[in-house]
Amino acid sequence: MRFGNHFKLLIPLGAAMLPGFGPSAWGQTPPPNIVLIMADDLGYECIGANGGASYTTPHLDRLAAGGLRFTQCHSQPLCTPSRVQIMTGQYNVRNYTHFGHIDPSQRTFAHDLRDRGYATAISGKWQLGGDRQAIGRFGFDEYCLWWLEKKSWRYGSVGELIRNGDVLPGSRGEYGPDVVNRFVLDFIERHRTGPFFVYYPMMLPHAPFVPTPLSQGGAEPREQDPQYFADMVSYMDLLVGRVVEKLEALGLREKTLLIFTGDNGTNSDVRSALVDGTVVQGGKGRTTGAGTRVPLIVSWPGTVPAGLVSERLVDFSDFVPTLQAAAGYVPSRDRVLDGVDLMPVFKGERPTTRQWSYCWYAKEGEEDKISVFARDARFKLYADGRFIDLPRDSLEMRPLPVSSMEAGAMESRRRLQAVIDRFAPLRPVR
Hints:
This protein is of the alpha/beta class. It has helices at residues 13-16, 58-65, 79-88, 92-95, 109-115, 134-137, 176-190, 229-249, 289-292, 319-327, 343-346, 407-423; strands at residues 2-3, 33-39, 68-74, 119-125, 142-146, 161-163, 166-167, 196-201, 256-262, 271-273, 279-281, 293-299, 308-310, 314-315, 357-361, 371-375, 379-382, 387-389. It folds into two domains: 2-365, Alkaline Phosphatase, subunit A (3-Layer(aba) Sandwich), CATH 3.40.720.10; 378-423, no CATH class.
């Protein structure tokens, strides 16, 4: 079943975005366990189910076949901006300060779910500043994290991971992604009576490109070569499979909403082929589709119908209201959220109500380096006036001149300009 443009919108976008809009999703029924997995530097083109031909991703392909796959999910162009947005449900224009940091005043999806009685955990890459006490202040009961108090070698484990306040001694040669994955599996095991929430921001397949434990010849942690990217994607997929297997072994698959995405586009050193012969150059750090288009797969047997494909826009501000709805958490009406609830989409009831997506992006928050755009299903408008017909110009090399625009394009441009103007007072582009 494919959600295309022929589906009617049942709720106006503005209404769906009002803080506190709508009732609890489940009433008195038990809320689902929730596992949110986010790969590091994995663009849309890397997944077989999305038409990727360069890498082996059987576990993710099966999740997509048995659930819902989105074709137009967009993150921020870089890791920290995406992490702040996905955790808070707000566009970066409201609360982003600088790379490697999240403001301690921010409320996250973990706060919301913990308030609903969920046991909460985060395992993997943090990269948002703070100390060992900070994680609890962001709503997580337990954690096992890399890049918490300092940046270190991500693919080792000796003294480089911190778990619930303690530096893990590890074993020399132990693979860091395996350690944080085991923490996820253990947390699920210990909290199998639920409800639990696991946020699993993976360490793979971010550079440096090094062998995995399954690479030919075994892992040599300091040997770096882009040829290992394929092995890293495969190992990332294997770790996702281990989470699915644990849920199955505990009889929790039909009680668990599992979501997989990526934090931004693929590293620019990587070129990936699609089955139609198209070659995609990684666009991490860029505001083109190659920098923001990421996989989004949703699996929940018995609730999310198998074989769904949504071609409608989704962005990272949508995750907070969606998880709130799944858990039955109703936010206060004075809380600002920029996203829409995707639960009706997950259940196959209707396509998303999102008609546009907005992006405010600056790695260090510098006023002179801000990139702002709004887009719809076809067109993209930058604050500097560049207007792109995306299906015809995916690399954004040929902005459309106003003088030659057709009426439909002019109307889209007007609507997108209104979106940019709506957020401009928060942090003007100079």
